[in-house]
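Dear colleagues,

As part of the handover before I leave the project, I'm documenting each prediction I ran so the next person doesn't have to rerun anything. This entry is a single chain, and its sequence is reproduced below.
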Amino acid sequence: MDTNRRDVLKMGSTAALGGMFLSQAAMAGQERQPIIVEPLTGKAGFRVANYLPKMGASSRLGLVTNDGLVVDIPAEAARQKLTLSFDPTSMISLAGSGNSGLLELAAIFKNRGANLQNVNQVILLSPIPKPQSNIYCVGWNYLDHFEEGKLHRADKGVTEYPKVPVFFSKGTQTMNGPFDTIPYDASNSTMIDWEAELAVVIGKKGANISEENAMNYVFGYSAFNDTTARDIQQKRHSGQWFKGKSLDGHGPMGPWVVTAGGVNLDDVRVICRVNGVEKQNASYKQMYFKIPTIIAELSRGLTLLPGDIIATGTPSGVGNGRTPPEFLKPGDVMETQITGVGIIRNTIAPSAFTKDL
């Protein structure tokens, strides 16, 4: 394995361990569909990407403009002689910098130079390639999704909709890049399913947060797919969710984080397409437990930290709920769109896992 590719894998541009599968983003010069820059629905926000300007370079944060140009934050801060309150190579650090960081982003954006790369010329990584804790997830947060899953649930006793959000988590090794391949190992699972979700990135440390103050703890939003091995979830582990949700690389996120002021949640739709065919499409308004309730309930006796990720639930239309059921197979392209935020696109690829790394 050459040094550049090894560096990319170590940085976590995919969730690959020891090079088990190769990031699509790491294939320099590979032909790919153009990256779409969605218009922001909020009045004051930024698209913040984690990226490589070229193969062999170090990762850093960048601001993506409406016309698809990337402002190199550390380079621009140096050019503008601006001292930053955050590490310009870390989304977690930026998320925790509060208003100071946002004001610094505004200054960098306003005074940016003219020599900028197009977003299609760089390599976009997961916004948070190495989460500091498991990814928090909300189950059954759309009524139709709760209903469509009744037939396939291992626990047939769950018949009434829960009165509070249902939480589970995905392991940190599930994190994957916005355009990277998702590994498929038929000896482990042949029932890989899609679950498009709006991801929330926390921006402030807090516990026992009230619903009234919850939105003050949101740094921004991203597109996420809670890709799930249904046979592991429903059969091998008897309906216990963690393992079926936590296979390596089964949590693509991106293509960037849009800061909170750039997103009008009432305009958000959660969409998934497989090979160009729409499978899921629902509004944030249809979400049963809204973000303030999710944050308040999750933080009861549990401290949330800047950079923590909350996947807020998937709408109906998953493969397991269809008649007959549908599942992803090698070569399929899974596209996850959060309107006003962005679109990620991941190809399912065969992967031979090794026993020892």
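The helical segments are 3-11, 73-79, 91-95, 98-110, 143-148, 230-236, 241-245, 291-298. The mean pLDDT is 88.

All the best with the project,
I.
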